[in-house]
Amino acid sequence: MTLKRRLPFLRWSVLRFAWAMPGFVKTGQLGDGREAAVAADVEANALAGDVDDVLATMDRFAYEKSMLVNVGDEKGALLDAAVRRADPRRALELGAYCGYSALRIARAAPAAAVYSVEFSAANADIARRIWRHAGMADRITCVVGTLGDGGATLDALAAHGFAPDNLDLLFIDHDKRAYLPDLQRILDRGWLHPGSIVVADNVRVPGAPKYRAYMRDEQGRSFDTVEHRTHVEYQTLLGDLVLESEYLG
Predict the structure, then answer these.
(1) Which CATH architecture best describes the domain 70-247?
(2) pLDDT for the residue numbered 18
(3) Which of 93, 168, 173, 240 is catalytic?
(4) 0.85 exceeded by the pTM?
(5) Catalytic residue among 75, 176, 182, 244
(6) Which position among 201, 240, 244, 246 bears the catalytic label?
(7) What residue ranges do the domains of the chain occupy?
């Protein structure tokens, strides 16, 4: 890994990201067009129908052109392993962004129907473009909304077949403040079953302290959690945590 890849502050796109964070929280985009640009880059340069090449193209874009807030290649490998352990038939992601992690889930679980909730309609359109180019449009469904909207998005998911005990894998990678409330909303619906796997990204940076405290309190009771020490996406300077939690019922 080159010095510029390893040290994020040497990349202008990372500095631009830090400056744009307040707007990102509100819109889901960084305001400089990088989200649309990665979709265009994939369509121009990745082999159509080749999910591996699409993911590799997105990783190169994030390293060499503009940093993205995908789960990334290093943490993506942790996600892949958790997906294989869960062997899901139904998977739910909270936070599609540009569609990267949903592609990893669909690749690692070829029998799964993958659903992704994304609050930004613009991001949802970008993700769908990338999924279509990767040949995964029939495997991944994006629902535009948020679980904190009073039940409308949860009801939309129920219309897609979500029901008690049929959610095998949950990946959480959206508004860090919503990690715990949204997990509780899913638990209240009874969608998880013993053996379901919940994976949460960015638990250290930017951080989801209430979620982490909850998983520590519930260790051995309702969840069995492993904390994976890793790095913030697309660099090796800043440490991060990915939590992988098996639901015990």
Answers:
(1) 3-Layer(aba) Sandwich (3.40)
(2) 59
(3) 173
(4) yes
(5) 176
(6) 201
(7) 70-247
